[in-house]
Amino acid sequence: MPGFEDDMPFFDEPARASRPAPGGIAARAMAARQGRSATPDYLNGLNPEQRLAVETTEGPVLVLAGAGTGKTRVLTTRIAHILATGRAFPSQILAVTFTNKAAREMKSRIGMLIGEGNVEGMPWLGTFHSIGVKLLRRHAELAGLRSDFTILDTDDQVRLIKQLIQAEGLDDKRWAPRVFAQMIDGWKNKGLGPAEIPEGDARAFANGKGRELYQAYQNRLLTLNACDFGDLLCHPIRIFRAHHDVLEEYHRRFKYILVDEYQDTNTAQYMWLRLLAQRPRQSASVPAEGRGGDRRPPDVSGAPAQGQPQEAAVRPVSVNICCVGDDDQSIYGWRGAEVDNILRFEKDFPGATVIRLERNYRSTAHILGAASHLIAHNEGRLGKTLFTDRPDPEDAKVNVHAAWDSDEEARAVGEAIEAYQRGGHALNDMAILVRASFQMRSFEDRFIEIGLNYRVIGGPRFYERQEIRDALAYLRVVANSGDDLAFERIVNVPKRGLGEAAIRQIHDTARALGTPMLAAAANLAESDELKPKPRAALREITANFERWQKALDNTPHTELAETILEESGYTDMWKNDRSADAPGRLENLKELIRSMEEYESLRSFLEHVALVMDAEQNEGMDAVSIMTLHSAKGLEFETVFLPGWEEGLFPHQRALDEGGRSGLEEERRLAYVGLTRAKKNLHIWFVSNRRIHGLWQSTIPSRFLEELPEAHVEVQESGNSYGGYGNPYGGSSFASGRGGRQNPYGASRFDSLGQGSSDKGGAFSNSYATPGWQRAQQNRTEATSRNWGTRSGHQVERIGYGETDSGYGAGRGSVKGRTIDGELVAKSVAETPSPFSVGERVFHQKFGNGNIAAIEGNKLTIDFDKAGQKKVLDSFVEGSRGVGE
DNA sequence: CACAATTGACTTTTT
DNA sequence: GTCAATTGTG
């Protein structure tokens, strides 16, 4: 990671005042010093507010930057400005973001502003966590760690907790490790250690042993020389508090602090920032302005130990902290973000300058109008109103569409996308933003069917995949033989005949000897405490690790990684795996090796993997993006589709149940984020029926639809422009509801469409299925329909299929029936020998060509060329002869 | 010990 | 409906 080199000296870099500063910057700094005030080109094109935000470098500044108002530009220009005017050296600037993506973006934009070549030491720019790691590596011993500590991800964390719960003799069913991991996360988000958590919280878990368990977990982490994500924030906080000399070191170092997405900070991050940004009077260092107008950075070359000349501090040092955020885009409350941090800024930092950026450069007046009107329904805002000075009468209004069910929704969106495409729009400029990821499937299915390129953003992360985590575990053990969690993960992967018993044995030995598990295993392999088989297996694997570790220093790390995966039998394991995703996994492993090339050593690679591994694939192709509203924050698209605006889904029922009013407001902010992603075209969809947890439920339109202003919205007369299927609801009822009242629409404007939406809770009303109830339901339908199912046999399927293919006018009953038919026919005709054989090439109307991977009765598992692996009934496919390849 | 059958959960997600 | 994780069986 450029700019994050750990060997970069801490304090001597800005020291050589005599050393020529990089060209452009030096020249500008010189100009600034000499009072020449020609506007530097990097300031050109900023509007007055933006310029103020850039040039108000001293003192606390809060920039309230609405969506699309040039927030990132302000941040990056501000950094460039500070550098160009010689106010600070790069290393004296700390810039914090939330995501790696944002960090990368800022880095490259700063690079562009000040010239790549000139970047001699970038600012400390990174996520809270990556900066936390950097701090912690330097001061690990103060937290009871060694500086080569490992970073556990959620998966490791959960497995560890599970062990602890079992060690306590507790039932890990009743006390789910995952739940406890979340509790710990929650505490750490608040900066609370085991001693500080509220009594109630402590009692709520593990028969009141919550606190002990938390403590045990922390102890275990120290033994393992490991940190979880929360610790990356909490340890530095604790170190800062306990060691003032360390904190002062950083006070001297960081002259300017910048924070992106301030509305998303949680309590721990807030404390972390406060510690760095607020300097107690008595320990204040020399204010730069105190040096007689000389704007050069203060000389901080003296090593900390040497000490600064302690001039009596006259006043608190101005905290040059600049936080940029938008309270209306706070959508991470559920994971500990405190909107309050931004609402409170002026109190926290007295004398703060607050700058509002309200001039929007992104969206049309209609979109802004809709978004503003919607968000105005929230209370407790700092209040901003976005405006554009480029209204265009040609702009399209925000479109609201209705669909019968999610399949029709997907179909209609698909057709709209194709229509835009025909109109010359690139797929890359379009996005579908959903509330919950399960909504993605119907779009994916549909797009595969019609051959529309799409990409899913923010799915399961690359490094979270099983094969990647396994491979990494091997590498982790090689790099650090004390990594027990990693060792345990792969001792028996691939299967080596080392089961529960053997692993417990290794555990016990490790504990008895006080060594890591790998060493214990080596020991055990030489003793006769194990049966011959596991013993041989252990001997082999420990010998392997020993050999790999020896090779670590004299083999290129990518090569070593390949060797390890080969020799351990790991790649063979997947090569022998017949399942459809095995080739993909092998491909991923190759990708992993490729990605290692960018790092100079195995160690540095592993460090980055833990924190910053996200693979963006398919970047090259033109494709529609599908993602959740959450992951869309910060992005923009020409055309945006927002499906699923129904009560219960959006706003989500659970947000309402658990968050009450504030939950609703967060959902509304999420809607606001969604609306403001669109530059030109915005289409909102809602459906009357949606399948949740396998059951069809009727739904009513989202209340957010009622909150859109009539003037900027156009309600589409149902999907009549999208193909010839019937309109299942009265299209005219859209128009009918328009009336007076405060809300320009009648309350039931969209309601009237919700055919069969009798039960008020809709899809997500509390009545919905517990797993048991649901299964009972399923059994019942199956039982009742078995009779006519056997009678009609394949006939029924074809009808069912025909309906799927040709029309959505059929009521939901038949849609339901289709599914049931699939089930029941499969069971009733199970004995009939299949006309197909494994490996045969077949054609399916919906999924195209594919090869049969497996046959069970009349159910075929087929690897489709385009659609991947699907299970279908044999009557749906035909031999692919004649259906050209 | 390995595999198949069964059970249960299931909003959002970064690091 | 789908997934993973756990339980029961060979």
Automatic annotation (TrEMBL):
Annotated keywords: ATP-binding, DNA-binding, Helicase, Hydrolase, Isomerase, Nucleotide-binding
Residue ranges, compositional bias (Low complexity): 302-312
Domain UvrD-like helicase C-terminal positions: 365-634
Keyword RNA-binding attached: no
Annotated UvrD-like helicase ATP-binding domain residues: 44-364
Compositional bias per record (Acidic residues), positions renumbered to this chain: 1-10
PROSITE patterns per UniProt: UVRD_HELICASE_ATP_BIND, UVRD_HELICASE_CTER
Family as reported in the entry's similarity comment: Belongs to the helicase family. UvrD subfamily.
UniProt-recorded name of the protein: DNA 3'-5' helicase
